[in-house]
Amino acid sequence: MSRVVCFGELLIRLSSPEHALLSQAPALQVHVGGAEANVAVALACLGHPVRMVSAVADNPLGRRAVTFLKSHGVDCDAVHLHPGRMGLYFHSPGAGLRPAQILYDRAGSAFAAASPDSFEWDRALEGARRLHVSGVTAAVAAGPAQAALHGARAAQARGIALSFDCNYRASLWACRDAQPRRVLTPLIEGADVLFGNHRDASLLLGRAFPGENAQQRREAALALFAAFPSLRLIASTVRRVDSADCHRLAARIDTPDGEFETAEVALTGVVERIGAGDAFAAGVLHALGAGAGPRHIAETGLALGCLKHFLPGDASTLTEAELRSACAGGLDVRR
After folding, report:
1. pTM of the model
2. Residue 105 falls within a domain, yes or no?
3. Residue 335: what pLDDT?
4. How far is CA 323 from CA 50, 71, 283, 294, 312, in A?
């Protein structure tokens, strides 16, 4: 099976335990994360050959991040050790009516400071069928944004499919002297799969798209197809948050010829909201790689995304057998 290549920053996450605020926590829990790395881990656990392309700090934290990916079967030969620091983010879990909060500390990280030319795309894309990137990378700094564009164009020149997750992060873009639309548009122009909703359409196309119902969401998708002719599939979720630990989630797939939107799934007793969107993306790519149609793609993405809400840490580590078993139902202990 040809591999999926993911490009982005590996992060160290520091979380306050037991729903405490960061200002209250006497200690912090450590996890390895990063949007594209989460997709890489999830796909590897589902049985796909996956390669990660990145740069990490040449220190114990950087090596810990690489070891985590390798432990789940991700090829890290294209993850380079660079002088500098690891990008961090601090997470305060939500509780009840208090939402979770994230504080980024990524400026000047080894990844952010890496030269765009330090990533050898000829080698990184060898044997690849798909390159996956996201808007988080473009928001980190100008260098990673340029590197992502180099990778996207290298993939396009080799006939390798490109998937792009908009993953808009307002706090990161606020620190950059750049317009998101101008930076992201060239990255999306070669993509066949886009992860994004009506809000992303508003950002990318410069006009407002409401998304209160399926018809409005379809209008936003059709506008994206018109603006980016290479797109063949747009995947998105519809989330309603009743409280920090009670969400409702549905999934949607749009193609130029049709659409499918699942029913809502109630998620009660949420353990971990972080990484659910990345798990959804991995589920979509997993089903798409198997040649599934829009309905099965939506349902698979939704299933993995929903299940991630009940796993600690940033990435889904469910195997395909565990995914199938969970989808089959039955909540009693499996012995």
Report:
1. 0.96
2. yes
3. 43
4. 19, 19, 10, 18, 16
